[in-house]
């Protein structure tokens, strides 16, 4: 696997997460522990390695990506970097000696104090005892450490770990073929890009457009977003009157939260470059997202993105849908001041 290949694969599979994490590192906002929740083939290892390379790269590109050429990048790619500690289960379980190795490395990092990143794949295969000993290090991060815990199924993860990590859901990124198929299925252009961020299948997309649900949701989220950007306290009221009724069941509530992520992601994408409105999730509010992209500092936009990305984990943790959206709205309005 060449080093360009990993970063390119990560970008192809998870363009939004890659740009999100590159910006978190750039602005020094990387948290101590993340849970990357993604089915096989969604690029969780590639994104994890891209994050590791970006942390150590000596020659970050103009696009804010790891270069893939410098000695640090090369050592990480070769699996031979002393400060990138990677564990993959050996068979069905993460073995006791692998956990012992992890603990020893954590302890070492406390002494050395230098940047260190831990990547533990299939963390669901840890025994409860092993997971609990890992928790201690997540709870009391030592030195300059980052832990990336990877899983294909967060439902198998202990709640104690879920509650102490930031959960990042890896959604399968739609191939160009999906956009074409959506067009063939009669989906209007203004909804196509948004749908490719929400689902991988044409039939699931078609379910979302039934009875204009998607059109109504796109309008409601766009108006809520506009109110937030205008520092209009009525954004809070819109949660109750317009967003909450869209979430008639848990699945739809999840879709609404994903849609909220996308509207802020539109703004983030426009901060770096001009984006053709047809490539925005919310072309209707393009002038607003463009304005806020230039008004807000990168730090604030990244903070907002982080807060919106956290809502899916809150929903999975059984928090009330309305309460999640209200808390998010207050956090966002606070960033707008
Ligand atoms: Zn490099």
TrEMBL record:
Record SUPFAM superfamilies: P-loop containing nucleoside triphosphate hydrolases
Name of the protein in its database record: DNA polymerase III subunit delta
GO MF annotations in UniProt: 3'-5' exonuclease activity; DNA-directed DNA polymerase activity
NCBIfam families: holB (TIGR00678), PRK08058.1 (NF005972)
EC number: 2.7.7.7
PANTHER family linked to this entry: DNA POLYMERASE III SUBUNIT DELTA, REPLICATION FACTOR C / DNA POLYMERASE III GAMMA-TAU SUBUNIT
BP GO terms, sorted: DNA-templated DNA replication
Domain of life: Bacteria
InterPro entries (alphabetical): DNA_pol_HolB (IPR004622), DNA_Rep/Repair_Clamp_Loader (IPR050238), P-loop_NTPase (IPR027417)
Keywords of this entry: Nucleotidyltransferase, Transferase
């Amino acid at each position: 696997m060449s080093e360009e290949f990993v970063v390119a694969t990560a970008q192809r599979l998870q363009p939004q997460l890659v740009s999100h994490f590159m910006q978190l590192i750039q602005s020094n906002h990387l948290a101590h522990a993340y849970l990357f929740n993604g089915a096989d083939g969604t690029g969780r290892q590639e994104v994890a390695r891209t994050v590791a390379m970006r942390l150590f790269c000596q020659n970050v590109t103009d696009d804010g990506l790891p270069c893939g050429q410098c000695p640090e990048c090369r050592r990480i790619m070769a699996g031979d970097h002393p400060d990138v500690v990677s564990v993959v289960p050996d068979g069905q379980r993460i073995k006791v000696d692998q956990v012992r190795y992890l603990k020893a490395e954590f302890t070492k990092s406390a002494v050395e104090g230098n940047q260190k990143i831990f990547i533990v794949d299939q963390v669901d295969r840890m025994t409860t005892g092993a997971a609990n000993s890992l928790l201690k290090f997540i709870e009391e991060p030592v030195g300059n450490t980052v832990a990336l815990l990877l899983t294909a199924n967060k439902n198998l993860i202990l709640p104690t770990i879920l509650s102490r990590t930031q959960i990042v859901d890896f959604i399968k990124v739609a191939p160009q073929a999906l956009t074409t198929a959506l067009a063939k299925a009669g989906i209007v252009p203004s909804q196509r890009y948004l749908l490719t961020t929400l689902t991988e299948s044409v039939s699931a997309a078609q379910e979302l457009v039934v009875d204009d649900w998607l059109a109504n949701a796109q309008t409601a989220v766009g108006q809520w977003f506009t109110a937030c950007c205008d520092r209009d306290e009525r954004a809070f009221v819109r949660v109750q009157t317009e967003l909450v009724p869209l979430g008639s069941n848990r699945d739809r509530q999840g879709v609404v939260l994903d849609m909220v992520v996308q509207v802020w992601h539109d703004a983030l994408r426009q901060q770096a470059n001009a984006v053709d409105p047809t490539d925005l999730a919310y072309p209707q509010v393009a002038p607003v997202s463009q304005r806020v992209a230039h008004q807000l500092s990168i730090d604030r936009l990244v903070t907002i993105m982080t807060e919106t990305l956290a809502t899916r984990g809150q929903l999975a943790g059984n928090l009330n849908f309305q309460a999640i959206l209200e808390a998010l709205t207050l956090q966002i309005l606070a960033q707008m001041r």
